[in-house]
Amino acid sequence: MKVAVYRKAQFNSAHRLFRKDWSFEKNNEVFGLCNNPNWHGHNYKLEVKVVGEIDPETGYVIDLKILNDIIQDEILERFDHKNLNMDTVEFKDLNPTGENIVVVVYNIIRTKLDARYELSVKLWETDRNFFEYPA
Amino acid sequence: MKVAVYRKAQFNSAHRLFRKDWSFEKNNEVFGLCNNPNWHGHNYKLEVKVVGEIDPETGYVIDLKILNDIIQDEILERFDHKNLNMDTVEFKDLNPTGENIVVVVYNIIRTKLDARYELSVKLWETDRNFFEYPA
Amino acid sequence: MKVAVYRKAQFNSAHRLFRKDWSFEKNNEVFGLCNNPNWHGHNYKLEVKVVGEIDPETGYVIDLKILNDIIQDEILERFDHKNLNMDTVEFKDLNPTGENIVVVVYNIIRTKLDARYELSVKLWETDRNFFEYPA
Amino acid sequence: MKVAVYRKAQFNSAHRLFRKDWSFEKNNEVFGLCNNPNWHGHNYKLEVKVVGEIDPETGYVIDLKILNDIIQDEILERFDHKNLNMDTVEFKDLNPTGENIVVVVYNIIRTKLDARYELSVKLWETDRNFFEYPA
Amino acid sequence: MKVAVYRKAQFNSAHRLFRKDWSFEKNNEVFGLCNNPNWHGHNYKLEVKVVGEIDPETGYVIDLKILNDIIQDEILERFDHKNLNMDTVEFKDLNPTGENIVVVVYNIIRTKLDARYELSVKLWETDRNFFEYPA
Amino acid sequence: MKVAVYRKAQFNSAHRLFRKDWSFEKNNEVFGLCNNPNWHGHNYKLEVKVVGEIDPETGYVIDLKILNDIIQDEILERFDHKNLNMDTVEFKDLNPTGENIVVVVYNIIRTKLDARYELSVKLWETDRNFFEYPA
After folding, report:
1. Cβ-proximal residues to B52 (8 Å cutoff; 6+ apart), any chain
2. Partner F contacted by C3 (CB < 8 A)
3. CATH number for the domain including F51?
4. Which residues of chain A have pLDDT under 70?
5. Min Cα–Cα distance to chain F from A111, Å
6. Domain membership of residue B28 as a residue range
7. pTM, to two decimals
8. ipTM score for this prediction
9. Which chains form contacts with chain F, at 3 or more CB pairs under 8 Å?
């Protein structure tokens, strides 16, 4: 009797999409406005989904306070009010596309979450563009 | 060629998270503010998902009026403007966590829905905390 | 050059609409389901609007952290995860309708806010029913 | 390492639910208000989900500009500000229920999308009634 | 001590923007896609705002059930699942722009609402285009 | 018979809150995380409100296409996918707080809008913090 539990959060970051080993023109061609060398930014919205059995004693799959603490300490502390390319080790050499961010967020939370839970993460870059891992 | 059909609804209820067989202190430790003995409440939002084949004659998987009537008669009649712990048989001895509520809602609708349909239910306790069954 | 600054928040409470000096029947006639003697509840959403001049030094009308602290300390501490009728002095003898709640919230914040600011408050009881004071 | 990429869009159309081979009474019985012979309409919201591997060079599953162009050229050009029953070949002889529309939209996008991608489509007829294919 | 009370509703209609006394070309030039002779449609969202004194006995400005009944009986009955141009007397000779619809809705509700209340109406044609009267 | 017409838009930008003539410590004390020297960013949402008389010929207060073109050409071209502090003349020496941005946006649109219209602008920095000018 597995139930999914969801928790939402938000972080506000600057980023730039580009490859250091490409020319500015090549980056512009592939990444368009997102290649602005002075950065732009987003309100990234996050939805973390944790699947597990209901604990018959508490009626919880996971205490949402615990899940929220993980999101707060591991994701928001790291990425909120930061420049993803400049201020984080995760995106120092990894292009901070929505796809790469959602995988990085998943991997960070995965290491903090008990192995008995299944995990997936959804990330909104804007209201119209968003990403999910695993698919 | 299976299609999913979704219908949303809302009910406004009071509840308290606690176990009768635990001390007040133990309940506070586990359930925090949700253990307020005088209750608190939520606008619970519900999303019911029904999966089936499209009827080639009508173009419907299920007449949404029928699905809405089930939600209205079986869920809203039972839980809307109620105290989940005091006014319902379902949560008399079951802690009304989001996890337990979403399973109870699923089980009620399941008995009213033709067996050829697959069913799942999503329940929002707040905009940031929600639940889904089956996961 | 007055600018309005808005901050949103939420509190989850139980309440009952009724008058102690009316019969149960009279209360039912006027307040319907909201007169459930065992309470029901809502996710109350709050939007606080503060109007003032931009401080030319900071570019702020008011530091939103200060406004948020007032909302947190004066409103959420008081009403969140509470039974409005039983747990608060404000609604001990005042029917906790949306209209009365929005006026009470306004009056509390007004005493904590520098007199040079204009204030108004909006309160959602549900997504479809909400209230504003002053109008 | 498959990631899902989502893109949202909207089109505003008129439609009528009915079968030409049924009497007006029979259509009314089955389709109710949706059988209004003078049409009614909706803001249809669309969410297109594309699943694939992240391209390690770009960090993209698919350039969202390409996905957006497909939605624009193939779906919005065809259905936006149209009468689905009268102005489109797709619904000339197919009842434009949410179920049928979501399958038609899927089939159109499927032919334009590289075969290495998985696709699914969600369609909102209103905020409370929506549809997904495949389920 | 005036408080504003808000109620939201929705109706789904077909319409066409054009003037009978203009050529098709002139209508196209001014109204673009909205001049489709076979109609298109919208989910019109409505927000009705009523301002008045709180009744000290009930704590209500107006019983929202009464306001909702007016919206239901006078606006939704008239416009929901209708073709505004063909099925209504109001827009038989009046172009159903958002501006004209919001004024018509205001005028209808105004006649049904006690004169001691102030009224205003907001109408969403889409999430990005909306209208309010009086301004 | 004045009607308000609203149009929404969005731009995604990087920014930093600070004063060049203050020490880093002073800036941190006043602007907190928003003083990150490597920038952070937001999805800024914009709501432009134009008030005027309905043109009896067209039924429009203003052709929303014209209003949208102004927003597109004057605001989004200037600020979308930009670093507000580095890439714009408007915020070269003006702290890009929500308050200052909303006034700047207002002033730009005001010069492009016929004088017979009243104008006001609302700007969301996040879903919970927003700004309006004039108040």
Report:
1. B2, B3, B5, B61, B62, B116, B117, B118
2. yes
3. 3.30.479.10
4. none
5. 27
6. 2-133
7. 0.97
8. 0.96
9. A, C, E
